[in-house]
UniProtKB/TrEMBL annotation:
InterPro entries linked to this entry: NDUFAF7, NDUFAF7_sf, SAM-dependent_MTases_sf
Superkingdom of the organism of origin: Bacteria
Keyword Transferase: yes
Pfam families recorded: Methyltransf_28
Keywords: Methyltransferase, Transferase
Name of this protein: SAM-dependent methyltransferase, MidA family
Any one biological process term the GO annotation gives: methylation
GO molecular function: protein-arginine omega-N symmetric methyltransferase activity
Organism (species): Thiohalorhabdus denitrificans
């Protein structure tokens, strides 16, 4: 995800109206109890049918939205990731590709184009998408770019009901699942709820007891963390991975997102957690600003995800940062091959160089983004992890 940290732009009238509508829905939910856990606030703000950020019809991805993901930066992201997809399909003896949360459709286009170029098109390319407007946007993208492959593509609203084999790809999905917010106090772990703020007309944090025992269980031993530290606990990401694994007979789940192993995520240096919001390519940390109009994310606890996957019968096939993953899969060679073909303008070369830096440099996506591969019925080593595999850190 590419963004800028600077002053927030002013919302337009339509955005203000939508935010107030979502805020009214949130206040209604708080009317009975006076406050709700943050995961309930985040779920409403992002996924409330017809209102939420991801299902409300507003453009979110790309230069005209709130943030740019790796596939929008350059098609070489998807072209390169396709190398790991091809490898897994070969180990499965064929199968489907299932992309969860396909955004603008850019990654689907890139993967399908590269798989076709390599002569390894899947039997089906299935897209798991809960947003009706994103589904329409994905279809339009594929109709415009790969109309001859559209008959291979189908959209799902839930995981396949039948057993399947192949590869599931999820890029920047887990970070957007609702999280709990907690604070370490002298009395132990407390949860941060969201309550109406009568003074401002908005919302405020309100400390209370932990709403779900799994929240405390997920954090484990808190002895090394300072009083006053706040952080997030994502119970939905491990549950999502377990559900994704349920019907997969053979293949892999490739999860690319920003996050860390638990030992790195829950550290005193992250005293305010990792909650981040995005509005028109500006990043900030106020989730109560324009609910339903801005994105809300939190870094992924990859240790919790891996543990849930192993409990569901999967194995860790590899874990590394995005830069190492792409380099292992031949990103540099693929780009050099393209540039060596000629007919590339100076402007195109500059744009490509800028995008590649964003994908691979530590101050961009290179280190903060990780690639976790979870497998069943296939054995490695896998090409995306031939060097720099950090699975031992999980």
């Amino acid at each position: 995800m590419e963004y800028t940290e600077s002053a927030l732009p002013e919302p337009n009238d339509a955005e203000r109206e939508r935010a107030e509508t979502v805020a009214a829905a949130l206040r209604e939910r708080m009317a009975g109890s006076g406050a709700i856990p943050f995961d309930a606030f985040m779920r409403t703000a992002l996924y409330e049918p017809g209102l939420g950020y991801y299902v409300g019809g507003r453009e979110r991805l790309g230069r005209g939205g709130d943030f740019v993901t790796a596939p929008e930066l350059t098609p070489f992201f998807g072209y390169t990731v396709a190398g790991q997809v091809v490898d897994l399909l070969a180990r499965c003896g064929g199968g489907d590709v299932l992309e969860a949360g396909a955004g603008s459709g850019a990654l689907a286009t890139q993967l399908l184009a590269e798989l076709e170029r390599l002569g390894n098109l899947p039997e089906r390319y299935r897209i798991l998408e809960v947003s009706p407007d994103l589904k329409d946007r994905q279809r339009r993208t594929l109709e415009r770019t790969l109309p001859h492959l559209l008959d291979r593509v189908e959209w799902l609203e839930d995981f396949p009901a039948e057993p399947w084999s192949g590869v599931l790809v999820a890029n920047e999905l887990l970070d957007s699942l609702p999280v709990h917010r907690v604070r370490i106090t002298e009395e132990g772990l407390k949860e941060l709820y969201v309550a109406p703020d009568e003074d401002s007309g908005g919302f405020k944090w309100q400390e209370g007891p932990v709403s779900d025992p799994l929240v405390a269980d997920s954090l484990g031993d808190l002895s090394g963390l300072p009083v006053g530290m706040e952080t997030e606990v994502n119970l939905e990401a491990p549950a999502w991975v377990a559900q994704a694994a349920e019907r997969m007979e053979r293949g892999g789940l490739l999860l690319i997102d920003y996050g860390h192993p638990a030992a790195e995520l829950y550290r005193p240096e992250r005293a305010r957690g990792t909650l981040m919001c995005h509005f028109r390519h500006r990043a900030h940390d106020d989730p109560f600003y324009l609910p339903g109009v801005q994105d809300i994310t939190a870094h992924v606890d990859f240790s919790a995800v891996a543990e849930a996957a192993q409990a569901a019968g999967l194995e860790v096939g590899g874990f590394t940062n995005q830069a190492q993953f792409l380099i292992n899969l031949g990103l540099t060679h693929r780009v050099e091959e393209y540039l060596g073909g000629g007919a590339v303008s100076d402007e195109e070369q500059l744009q490509l160089a800028t995008a590649l830096k964003q994908l691979t440099l530590p101050q961009g996506m290179g280190e903060s983004f990780k690639a976790l591969l979870l497998v069943r019925g296939v054995e490695g080593p896998f090409p995306g992890y031939r060097q720099g595999d950090r699975a031992g850190e999980l």
